[in-house]
Design a protein that fits this description.
This protein is an alpha+beta fold and 353 residues long. The protein has 8 helices and 12 strands.
Length: 353
């Protein structure tokens, strides 16, 4: 994620900012330009972005719920922006707790779309592709007597996010119960969309054999593999080959987990680059722990520069978190085999597989 700058007063802005805290200008994100802009009213529901004064637009329909601050592209007849037009079922906005949960979920979803748009990945709605278009359902659990709890998951382009995942307490309970070192809303989005892009880029993109050579035979029974995973757990040497224990359950999950981690790493490094961060320990013989994040990881030429910057950076950030009594920012080990898999994802999103 980048930092942005107010076109009116040059104040530093963040992706989720709705108003410039310095000059008071209302802000909007222009997805086709990939930038946040100060805006000024131009009559009725039209706004003029200062970054592109000849391209007035209007807010996504979800802006009235403070769930979106993106502008609909100029000339579009869509009510929703490029991110929100992929919404299927949304929570009951008349219920304050559900509305608050949905607003948190939309923050994570919009960060996901920032990434997908940066790489110009295929983004078709269900109207454009009724069979496999990307669609999100944000669902609340029914009363206990009326059915099972909602499960977050993916099915042919339909991604379901359980609304309860926006509850920090409940999400932490599930993280501990499932023995996970990391569980966040953005993590759910990045993982589940990985399944979608396995369908689009691998299965339908003619990359099956290359992917199987890296992640294994995906034709093995998925249901049986999950049952075996939950019954027996991960193999003892899993860290030598997989980024997480869940990745060991089936090649589809290995791909989705690796995809999610690639997105974690690239987006975090972009923010580190935006702040000009450098890791340079004050001890001697620490070249392996030194890094300067002075490049755009979204445009990196191969996985190696990303990993060379990530490992020292995340080691330092983990140490900072421990100093505050918190868990590691990134509680995972990247073995050579995992780095090779991350390289496959990198090449896939850049069209080099």
């Amino acid at each position: 994620m980048k930092l942005f700058q107010c076109q009116s007063c040059s104040n530093v802005l963040y992706f989720e900012n709705r108003t410039c805290e310095s000059c008071g200008h209302r802000l909007a994100y222009l997805p086709e330009a990939g930038t946040l802009s100060a805006i000024e009213p131009a009559g009725e529901d039209t706004w003029v972005p200062l970054v592109a004064p000849t391209r007035p637009g209007r807010f996504c329909a979800n802006a009235v719920y403070d769930a979106c601050n993106w502008l609909v592209p100029p000339g579009s007849d869509q009510a929703f922006c490029l991110a929100c037009r992929h919404n299927g079922t949304i929570p009951n906005v008349s219920d304050p707790p559900q509305l608050a949960a949905w607003q948190q979920i939309e923050v994570a979803k919009h960060r996901l779309f920032y990434t997908l748009l940066r790489w110009n990945l295929p983004l078709k709605t269900r109207n454009e592709d009724p069979a496999h278009g990307l669609l999100f359902d944000f669902l609340s659990d029914p009363p206990e007597t009326q059915g099972p709890k909602v499960l977050t998951g993916h099915d042919n382009g339909l991604i379901t996010i359980a609304l309860v995942e926006a509850d920090d307490v409940e999400r932490e309970k599930r993280r501990k119960g499932m023995g996970e070192p990391y569980r966040t809303l953005i993590g759910h989005f990045r993982h589940e969309v990985g399944h979608h892009y396995w369908d689009i880029l691998v299965r339908d993109g003619g990359k099956l054999e290359a992917c199987r050579a890296m992640f294994g035979d995906d034709t093995q029974d998925y249901g049986a593999a999950l049952q075996r995973h939950y019954a027996d757990g991960a193999p003892p040497d899993w860290q030598e080959h997989f980024v997480s224990t869940y990745a060991t359950s089936h090649p589809w999950e290995d791909f989705a987990e690796t995809w999610a981690h690639y997105l974690h790493i690239v987006d975090t490094l972009e923010m580190a680059s935006a702040f000009g961060l450098e890791v340079k320990p004050s001890l001697g013989n620490t070249d392996a722990l030194s890094a300067r994040v002075n490049f755009d990881p979204y445009e990196a030429n191969g996985i190696r520069p990303i990993i060379d910057a990530w490992l020292p950076f995340v080691f330092a950030m983990n140490c900072v978190n421990r100093a505050m009594g918190n868990r590691d920012l990134y509680p995972f080990v990247l073995s050579p085999a995992v780095i090779q898999k991350l390289g496959f994802i990198h090449d896939l999103v850049h069209g080099r597989v």
